[in-house]
Write a structure and sequence with these properties.
two-stranded antiparallel sheet, alpha+beta, about 25% helix
Length: about 80
């Protein structure tokens, strides 16, 4: 969440099977567009950022498949960062 002048903004998108996901590589960064064109959330990541996102997505998928349908499991990058 970013804060400027006392105003905080938080954005999210629910990704499900039918959620449009697109990517574009521009220079040394990847741009991910999540959601329909009328309400897209855009993420821009360096190569290291894409690698971290892929790692965390893989870990989250394993956790979803391994746990019961209740409870919370959380991963962070770097793993020892508990600042949130």
């Amino acid at each position: 969440m970013f804060a400027f002048g006392g105003i905080a903004v938080d954005s999210w998108v629910r990704i499900h099977r039918d959620c449009p996901i697109a990517w574009t590589v521009i220079g040394d960064e990847a741009q991910f567009e999540l959601g329909p064109s009328s309400a897209t959330l855009t993420l821009v990541a360096s190569e290291d950022g894409v690698a971290a996102l892929a790692t965390m997505a893989s870990e989250a998928l394993r956790a979803i498949r391994a746990r019961p349908q209740t409870g919370v499991t959380r991963g962070t990058v770097p793993p020892d960062d508990v600042s949130s």
